[in-house]
Structure formats: C-alpha cells, structure tokens
Fold this protein.
Amino acid sequence: MIDAGNTAWVLMSAALVMLMTPALGFFYGGLVNRKNVLSTIMHSFFILALISVVWVLWGYSLVFDGDHGGVIGGLGHIGLKGISPTDVMDAYGIPVYAFIAFQMMFAAITPALITGAFAERKRFKAFVVFSILWATFVYAPLAHWVWGGGWLAQLGAIDFAGGTVIHISSGVAALVAAMVLGRRKTFGTRETDPHDLTMTVLGAGLLWFGWFGFNAGSALGANGQAASAFLVTNVAAAMGALTWMTVSWMRRGNPSVLGAAAGAVAGLVAITPAAGFVGPASAIVIGFGAGIFCFFTVDLLKQRFKIDDALDVFAVHGVGGIWGALATGLFADSAFSGGPGVGFDGLFFGNPELLWNQTVATVAAVAFSASMTFVILKAINLVIPIRVEEEAEVLGLDSSQHGEVAYQI
C-alpha cells in the first residue's frame, strides 16, 4: 500500500534538492569574476541535466541493484529495467520511482559541488567527460558502500543524508582538481574577488531552503525523525553562520556578509550526516565546529599552501563533511534515531564503536575520492587538455567557451 503522506513528502523533498543545484550555480556565480559568471552557472545547470540521464541509464543500478563483494551494485536495473511505477518500498510506503527521483538529485549535486574548485580555468569539453566518469567511478561506488548495502554499511558506519557520500567525496575531489589544474593566472590579485555578493547570498538562501529536503527528506517519511532532522538542520546552519561571521569580525574588523553565507553552508554540510541522529543541542555544537574549522582551513590553503581552490570547496565541503561524519560518531543519540535498540548511539552516549566506524568511513572516502579523481583527471588530460589556453583564460570562459557574456558593457 502506498502511504500518501510519505510519498508527498519524499516527492516534495526531491523538488527541494533539485532546486539546490541551480542555487549552487548562483552561490558560485557571484563569487567569480564577471567574465566567468555564465560558465560557472552553466556547470551546475548542465550537470543537473547530464547526471539525471546518467542516473536513469546506469547510476541507480550501480548503487542499489544488489551487492557485489560490498563494492558495487549491478546492472540489472540499467535504464530502470524491471522497475515499474506500482513498485513500492514496503518499509516506507513510497513508490520506488519516488526514491529513485530523490536519490537522483543527490547524484546530480555532488559533482556540481566540485566545480567551484576549478572555476575560471577548466575546458568545458573536459568538464563534461570528467562529470560522467566521476559520477560513475567515484560517486556510485561510495553511495553503494554506505547506502546500497556495501562494506561500510556492513561495518556499521552511518551517513543520514550524505556527509561522506556527497560532501567528503566532492570536497576531496575539489582539492585534487585544484592541485592538478594549477593556480589561476589571477591568483592572489583583486581580479579573483567576488563580482556580485548579492547573487551569492541569494544562492546561499536557496541552498539553505533546499537543504530541508536534503536532510529531512532522507527520513523517507513524514514522521518524527523528519521533523527532528528539519529542526537540527536549521539550527546548525544558523550557528555556522554566526560563528564564521564572528570569527571573521574578530580577525578582520568587519562582520562579513560572505562569511555569514559561507558559514551557513558549512553548518549545513556538517549537520548532513548527523541530521537524523542528533538533537538540537548537539546540532549547535556541530554548527559551531563547522564555522571554526572551515574558516581557518580557507586561510590555511590560500595563505600558507597557496592552493587555488577557487571557491573554497574543500574548506567548506571537505572539512565540513569530515567534521560532520566524525561528530556523528560523537553525538549520535538513539532518542533521535528510532529509540534504544533501533537507533544509533555515539561515543558521548556510551558507544565508542560508532566513532571508530565513522573514522574508517571518513578515511576510506578521502582515500578513494582523492586517488580516483587524480586518475580520472590525468586520463582525460591525455586526450582532452583539461585546462583552457592562457588567452582563453584571460578573455574569460563565458566568451571563450560559450560565446556569450553575462553583462553587456
């Protein structure tokens, strides 16, 4: 039997998560130079279309069609073969198609997050090939390990809405991509300053809005766990925004608007793996940690190591995801995840084993994403140069890659 309430909530959540990918385009678009706005927005918009097709053709099957050695699913559902609109997930009373649509939006936004690292310098043709290969050989196995019954799920690692699968994987991939492509010609100059912070704040607001579907929707039902995830998502985002802005204010003398927006996103990232397992008080601590750790990572990468992760993807998503995954092992409380004997408890609630499982999952995700991303980028570069020519970079990717401009002078 189909549960109408659960089905409506999951479909609405899928729509909310879908909005996050173009919202990410606005968030990133405001941060780049005006001559690269369209190319940056296009990355997110195009990926939404591309990965939606990839997910139907083979992505969903690789993640959720059985289990082969704890590593990957199968190809029995290629093209969604063997699944009909009348098939129902009995545990939740939702059509399998609703679950497929919801997971599709997760698969789409993950490679889109990476694009902020190589903004203003990656060839579009190479970007297309990279997105397909990365979604197939990095995202699909990781998602299977955690959500498809793979070895991390069997170990006992948990990830409510994608801290490991989405944010650690994309954040680490972003760092590798930034290092492989090298620094922009304008790195360290005022030309890399955001051209439109109003666009970025709009994007951050839409991301915050969509994140309620991201996290609360992962309960796969209109229930108490969804309500709890909704609440802690907002609390962590708020604390992340307050923390980043305050630290920036103390260090630089001004309450930064960009800092508030970045801090909110960092808080959202950090609460994602824990959202269905922790209470509001723990969410405040998680949001606070995200604001602190992510803020100082930005300075560390840019000032000390001179790594040109253009839009701070690793600092926000990689570090935020790592903190969130480990914090889940600390703060998980069965009172918020199904009750004693059903839910999960972390170290601070008497179960140190969960922290160990979360640590193993974090290390595995970092190592796998880093190595596979490096191999994919190097392989593509043998056939298609991944970086545009110097003249094209100076001209701007809007004109050189797309033949269009965002603003008429």
About this structure: The CA atoms of residues 19 and 210 lie 6 Å apart. The chain has a mean pLDDT of 97.
